[in-house]
Structures are given as C-alpha cells and as structure tokens.
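Re: the 442-residue chain
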Amino acid sequence: MNRPNVILITCHDLGQHLGCYGIRTVDTPHIDRLATEGVRFSNSFCVAPQCSPSRAAMVTGRYPHSNGVLGLCHGGFKWDLHESETHLVRRFAAAGYYTTLIGIQHETPHPKRLGFDELHLEMDDTLPTARALQCADRAAAWLADPSRPKRPFFLQFGIYEPHRHPSHPTCWPLTHQKPRAEVTVPGYLKRDDGAAEEFGYFEASVRTADDAVGRVMAALNQAGLAENTLVIFTADHGIPFPRAKCTLYDPGLQVPLILRWPKGPWQAGTVHQAMISNVDYVPTLCDLLDLPPAADAQGQSYAALLRGQPCEPRQELFAEMTYHDYYDPLRAIRTERHKLIVSFCHNKALMNPSQQYRPKTITIVPADPSLSRHAMVQLYDLQADPLEQRNLANDAGQAKVKCDLLARLHRWMLETRDPLLEAIPMPPIHHEALAALRQAAE
C-alpha cells in the first residue's frame, strides 16, 4: 500500500479535559478540529494511570507488567523495557519509514536504544516557560526542512503540558490566564476556591498544549503533507488531580484518542463508542497500515472498525498500577457496566498526584484521604454510580457480579504472567542497593 506519514502526538496528564470531549470551559480549537476532521473514540482508556507504564504499553502493545515498565523510568526510579520488547518505532523502521522523536519520551531511561533515526529530546527540566511550544516549533522546523529524507516518516511528538511543574508557584507555567469562575471541576472533587484556582491554571495549560498541536498542524499543511499524514492524538493518562491520576478510577484512565487522515478509510467527524485501550494502538496501527504484524501484542486491533467493517468490540478492559511514588499494587477490570479493583497492599486510599505537600483540590469521597485506606476489593456500578463512590463489594445482591469479575481478572493475570501472582516485583533501586552491599562486603 501507499503508506501515509504518521505523527503520534501525546500529551502529559491531559485526560479527556478537552472541548471535543464535552468540557466547555477549556479552549482547544486545534484538537477539536482534529476530531471534526477525523475519528474520535469517546470510550478511550489507558492501561495505567501514570506516565511511563502507560506510554510503554502504548508503544509496545503489551501491558506494563509484561513489558517491564512497572513504574517511572526517570531519575532514581529507572524502570525500563525488557530487552526483548519491540517499540513501535522499530515496526515503522522495518516498513521503510524514517523515524524521529521530538519532545518528551517517558518509556525508557535510555532513549537512544529505542531505534529512532533522529532524537530531539526536551532536556531542560527547569524551564519556567511553555515547553510544549518550544518543542512544537522544533517539530514545525523539522517538517519544513527540505533536507528531510523523501520517504514516509514516523514522528513521535511528546508534549509536556499540562503536567504540573513543581518549581513554578502555580504548579503550571502559563502562556494563558484563566478567570476562576469559568472552569470545569469534575463532580468527584469539591468545588471550592482551591479547586477553582487550580483548574484555572490547569485549563490554561491545556490551552498551551492545544497551541502546540496547532503549530504542528499548521507546519504540516504548509509543507503540503497533511493529506497523506495520519495524525494520532492521545495522552498518557488522566488529569493530575486526586481520584484521577494514580488511581484506577475512570478519571485516572480516560484518555483522548483522535485519528485524522484525509485519505483514511473513515468519514470525517465519526465518533466511535466502543471501548478501546491504549494497549490496542500497536496491533491497530500494524493492521491498518500493513506494518509487520505484532504477534506478541496483548491488545486487539480496531482496524476493521476504522474501515467500517464488522469488529468484535471489547467486553472488558484491564488496568494496573504497581509503582509510582511508592509501591501501590492495584489491578482492575472494567466492563461497560461495572468496575472491579483489587488492592494487594493496605495503603492510603489515594496517592497524592498534586506535587504539593498540601493539595489545594480535595475529594468528596473519601472526605479525608489521609485517614482512608484501600479496600481489598472495590466494585462499582458505572451506570448507577458513574463517579465510582459507592463500593458494592460487600453487597450480597452483587455477589455474582463480583465473583465473575474476580475470576476474569485472575484469568487475565495468569494469561499475561503478572508477577504479582508470585511475589512483590522488586524495583531497580533494590537490585542496585543489593549490589552495593555485596560489593562492599567483598
């Protein structure tokens, strides 16, 4: 086939906080236009509510506990892909694509090993300005460069925003200012002055991310490449607020998924309701673009659905967290109707994703996260309780549902060889500490 160029755009901590996903207080005209000109998945989820594990699944088609990235890959965390894992870039390279990475990547501490022809990484972690726009300008310059190889390209473009930046007094370096009264605070959070202030900053940062997307799309049009370029827009996980990021509730797992390709096999403006997971991206792209097949992928292809052909929809999604700031092992199964979460450790009910000692935005349930801990099993009826606030795990009327979901979750853990079935998976620093002890003892 005459393969298109491909641009994979990922945002950091965005969730579905976008105009095209129904958030009317945030201005995202460029991303919304992608949805209008392409296809949007309304029930799109990630497999993990944190950066590295989710991104690793996105680019391998395999769950974090299978691909090796059970926690963050930067700094002292050092989680990394197993050497046997095949990153999406290698599948494109094998099909003859020229490959480039611009901006952030967060799936390995060793990006040079991934196999890109070019790397233009964002390096300065102390920038007080909009990092997304600087990287977007770099991507625009790359697209306009006449010396770029004249063959199909794969560009992985990573946007930092709207991730919090702890060195900035607002937590978000801003290029836009947002009045407090015009924000959307989700119903699982208390709408008070602290939440209004934070969501004002957050929505302003989302606008910056949208500006970055607009600059890349403008450059693509100016270079005459837009007609035969598949643009995929997504994010790593949910928004950086309590009961979202670092949780297996829907707000931690919901991500946008938009595909724009004027020559693609779909009608512009199509919205699909089928549940899709970001572990499905690799098999879908390999199928859709006739790339080398991803035989080891654990997701499923949605290429038939995109082509307008019969497609067996997912009956269930799986999600996980093992390490983030600390060991917090959780596994979940989600169907259209129910969510079941299992905790393997009696930790605090919510890990703090605010990067602040005293979070300004607080939850309704639990009323005081500092005094609440995980229930071993949580069960929610997503139709009756979409905010997942009434745990039905001990409800006798839900015993059959609970047992069924527990069995399905266990079967998935067995089939994917989840290490939690055997023992606590040790973090990289554990092995380094043992090596230091042994070396000193020699």
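The chain has a mean pLDDT of 95.
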